[in-house]
Design goal:
It is a single chain. The protein is mostly helical. 53% of the residues lie in helices and 6% in strands. The protein folds into 2 domains: 5-73, no CATH class; 81-314, no CATH class. The strands form 2 sheets. The protein has a 3-stranded antiparallel beta sheet, with no helix packed on it. The protein has a two-stranded parallel sheet with strand order 1-2. A hairpin with a 7-residue loop joins strand 4 (210-214) and strand 5.
């Protein structure tokens, strides 16, 4: 049955805000009771300030948050809720979560898709399958079959229905920032490229479980992997199945651009030249990155989840995004 994320969000917001109001009312009633017990009625404040209520309160935008809520670390916005939805979707892509069962699914070291299937109520009819190789590429276009944006679109389709897919993608895109002329998929792709990892690090207190392999500022190549599904050959597979093919795509694209520029004129030629400059920069960035990835791939680095994120992440510092 098709469902609108907007309706789910509104229902969730109403429930969360009602809980906020109820907790404040309960705390104020307790204050009245204790004031009466200790004969301090009229001498101590009974009302509980907004910033001291310790459960979530949701506002659609940051601009709507009253001054009285400033300092309340439980205040959330529509963007925060959609970011949580995206994080959950990525968790489903990796098999950490599932649309078929509650709670954590894959959370043990070296967990595999077979382990995931073993925990499903019906392994033959899984609602949304996790990515098979534990690598979700994030590039400026859909170059790979397991492209993270394509995976997210499929998650929304499966979870909420075909009929409402475009409406739901637009709601997600609009929630991530001011309404843009770009299509929803482009907005969501820009979010994954620029902001997803920062939001993830914030949620996990700078101890990310989804690691971002990142070639640099030109966005030559990025991909997410799930720490708990890490295998010693993962970096080698990233190089062979993703980095090297992406390098070949850049070489091919540069050749096509050169052919087009040879016959183009005016604005068209200028636009092609601008694109060529970007692709050339991405190719150069990726060439340097490939050397680092190759070096690590040859080492077949092992990790131990018991050592924690900080220790394990540092082993791949040359090829992973910096945690800020």
């Amino acid at each position: 049955m098709a469902t609108l994320i907007k309706d789910k969000y509104e229902a969730h917001k109403a429930e969360v805000n009602a809980r906020f109001d109820q907790l404040r009312a309960n705390e104020e009633e307790l204050n009245r009771i204790f004031a009466r017990i200790y004969n301090m009625e009229g001498e101590v404040p009974v009302e509980v300030e907004d910033k001291y209520v310790s459960v979530a309160r949701i506002f659609d935008t940051a601009e709507e948050i009253p001054e009285s809520y400033k300092g309340n670390r439980y205040v959330r916005t529509r963007r925060d809720e959609i970011v949580s939805l995206i994080s959950y979707a990525v968790g489903c892509m990796f098999g950490r979560y599932s649309l078929d069962v509650d709670g954590l699914v894959l959370a043990d070291q070296g967990a595999t898709v077979d382990d995931y299937l073993a925990k499903m109520p019906d392994p033959e009819r899984v609602t949304f399958m996790p990515d098979s190789d534990n690598v979700l590429p994030i590039t400026d276009d859909e170059y790979f079959g397991d492209d993270v944006v394509a995976k997210f679109v499929e998650f929304v389709r499966v979870a909420y229905g075909d009929e409402t897919l475009e409406q739901n993608l637009r709601f997600v895109a609009d929630s991530l920032g001011p309404a843009a002329k770009a299509g929803p998929r482009d907005v969501i792709r820009a979010y994954f490229i620029k902001d997803f990892f920062a939001d993830h690090c914030k949620t996990y207190k700078k101890r990310p479980i989804y690691w971002l392999f990142d070639s640099g500022k030109k966005n030559g190549f990025k991909c997410l992997v799930y720490m708990h599904r890490y295998q010693p050959d993962l970096v080698a597979r990233i190089r062979t199945d993703y980095v090297l093919p992406q390098q070949e795509r850049y070489r091919t694209r540069l050749g096509h651009l050169d052919d087009q520029m040879a016959v183009a004129e005016g604005r068209q030629k200028a636009a092609l030249a601008k694109e060529r400059k970007l692709v050339e920069a991405q190719a150069a960035e990726l060439a340097k990155y490939e050397e680092k990835v190759h070096h690590l791939a040859d080492q077949m680095v092992k990790i131990d989840l018991d050592d924690g994120v900080k220790v394990n992440y540092a082993k791949f510092a040359d090829v992973l995004a910096k945690i800020k």
